[in-house]
Amino acid sequence: MSKIVVVGLSGGVDSSAAALLLLEAGYDVIGVTMRHLPAETTNSCCGLEAIVDARRVAKALGIPHYLVDVEASFFERVIQPFETGYLAGQTPNPCALCNRFIKFGAMWDWAKSQGADYLATGHYVRVTYEAGRYRLWRAVDRQKDQSYLLYTLGQADLQHLLFPLGTLTKDQSRALAEQHGLVTAHKPDSQELCFVPNNDYHAYLREHRPEAERPGEIVDTEGRVLGEHQGVAFYTIGQRRGLGLALDEPRYVVRLDAKANRVVVGRRPQVERESLSLRDVHYVSDEPWTEAGRGLVKIRYNMEPAPATWEPQEASAVVRFDSPQWAVTPGQIGVLYQGEELIAGGKIAASD
């Protein structure tokens, strides 16, 4: 009897290719799309078009397809923390929360209710089982590797998760979908947050959290007033454009002080940091480090990991980089690799 696997069909090429590969591997495949936003949403990754494309793919592959409503959970677990994070002067990463609570939380709960043995997605990441534990690795396609956003996965998760695309490149996934005539083969990747129209989070906050518009002082690192800001929620660490300052040389956002309602700016070298602290740290092995160790640390999605020392402190950690890093941003994610393996990660709480 073949194993049952539920595949999250987003209406994109990656999840389509994942479903196809699992079907060819002999699994009993069920497709599901999680409706986490209102039906009138127009963003390409979660609107009506995406749902229709997911259903067309399921029909072409001859597999059942279901639409499951998770709108309330998505609002509570993803949207609300996104909004409050910005109001607190942080730059949150909602995709990591969506992965934890929606894609690998609510979707797995639904999959279990259908008697599934596994849950699969189109994420580009690899999993192996060695010496009695599951290990999480960067994808073969470094440009598409998504391990950075999956640091919250643990042993109980990985035992029922399948990632068919981890050893493929994006071009190979598209070619596979094209060979089988799937409508998503040449569909462009979504480059925006699904619940933020046009990726304009300023407009989003003005509409949904009008209290974000709270003018205050822009000051330099010595406390001298240089200008006025619109609200700390509209700025991020390392930002240069849009400050409205007429000075002799560029200034960058160095720190956001939500309590004092101040935006602190400085020269470029003042944006670099040699260390940072992480909170809510999670280890993929479920076995936290007890002593300091070496590795590669990544603090944003589109960067190569940098050499650093990782110093564990209960549920937190201090990272000390070998060389200063640009724009360490509270609210974002820091993850630890050893070679290609993802070891741990947490939320950036502060920098030196």
From TrEMBL:
<feature type="region of interest" description="Interaction with tRNA">
    <location>
        <begin position="144"/>
        <end position="146"/>
    </location>
</feature>
<protein>
    <recommendedName>
        <fullName>tRNA-specific 2-thiouridylase MnmA</fullName>
        <ecNumber>2.8.1.13</ecNumber>
    </recommendedName>
</protein>
<feature type="binding site">
    <location>
        <begin position="8"/>
        <end position="15"/>
    </location>
    <ligand>
        <name>ATP</name>
    </ligand>
</feature>
<keyword id="KW-0820">tRNA-binding</keyword>
<feature type="domain" description="tRNA-specific 2-thiouridylase MnmA-like C-terminal">
    <location>
        <begin position="274"/>
        <end position="348"/>
    </location>
</feature>
<dbReference type="GO" id="GO:0032259">
    <property type="term" value="P:methylation"/>
</dbReference>
<comment type="function">
    <text>Catalyzes the 2-thiolation of uridine at the wobble position (U34) of tRNA, leading to the formation of s(2)U34.</text>
</comment>
<dbReference type="GO" id="GO:0000049">
    <property type="term" value="F:tRNA binding"/>
</dbReference>
<keyword id="KW-0067">ATP-binding</keyword>
<feature type="domain" description="tRNA-specific 2-thiouridylase MnmA-like central">
    <location>
        <begin position="204"/>
        <end position="267"/>
    </location>
</feature>
<dbReference type="InterPro" id="IPR046885">
    <property type="entry name" value="MnmA-like_C"/>
</dbReference>
<feature type="binding site">
    <location>
        <position position="122"/>
    </location>
    <ligand>
        <name>ATP</name>
    </ligand>
</feature>
<dbReference type="GO" id="GO:0005524">
    <property type="term" value="F:ATP binding"/>
</dbReference>
<dbReference type="Pfam" id="PF20258">
    <property type="entry name" value="tRNA_Me_trans_C"/>
</dbReference>
<dbReference type="InterPro" id="IPR023382">
    <property type="entry name" value="MnmA-like_central_sf"/>
</dbReference>
<keyword id="KW-0819">tRNA processing</keyword>
<feature type="site" description="Interaction with tRNA">
    <location>
        <position position="123"/>
    </location>
</feature>
<dbReference type="GO" id="GO:0008168">
    <property type="term" value="F:methyltransferase activity"/>
</dbReference>
<feature type="active site" description="Cysteine persulfide intermediate">
    <location>
        <position position="194"/>
    </location>
</feature>
<dbReference type="Pfam" id="PF20259">
    <property type="entry name" value="tRNA_Me_trans_M"/>
</dbReference>
<dbReference type="InterPro" id="IPR004506">
    <property type="entry name" value="MnmA-like"/>
</dbReference>
<keyword id="KW-0547">Nucleotide-binding</keyword>
<dbReference type="Pfam" id="PF03054">
    <property type="entry name" value="tRNA_Me_trans"/>
</dbReference>
<keyword id="KW-1015">Disulfide bond</keyword>
<feature type="binding site">
    <location>
        <position position="34"/>
    </location>
    <ligand>
        <name>ATP</name>
    </ligand>
</feature>
<comment type="similarity">
    <text>Belongs to the MnmA/TRMU family.</text>
</comment>
<feature type="region of interest" description="Interaction with tRNA">
    <location>
        <begin position="300"/>
        <end position="301"/>
    </location>
</feature>
<keyword id="KW-0694">RNA-binding</keyword>
<keyword id="KW-0489">Methyltransferase</keyword>
<dbReference type="GO" id="GO:0103016">
    <property type="term" value="F:tRNA-uridine 2-sulfurtransferase activity"/>
</dbReference>
<dbReference type="GO" id="GO:0005737">
    <property type="term" value="C:cytoplasm"/>
</dbReference>
<keyword id="KW-0808">Transferase</keyword>
<keyword id="KW-0963">Cytoplasm</keyword>
<feature type="site" description="Interaction with tRNA">
    <location>
        <position position="332"/>
    </location>
</feature>
<dbReference type="GO" id="GO:0002143">
    <property type="term" value="P:tRNA wobble position uridine thiolation"/>
</dbReference>
<dbReference type="InterPro" id="IPR014729">
    <property type="entry name" value="Rossmann-like_a/b/a_fold"/>
</dbReference>
<feature type="active site" description="Nucleophile">
    <location>
        <position position="98"/>
    </location>
</feature>
<dbReference type="InterPro" id="IPR046884">
    <property type="entry name" value="MnmA-like_central"/>
</dbReference>
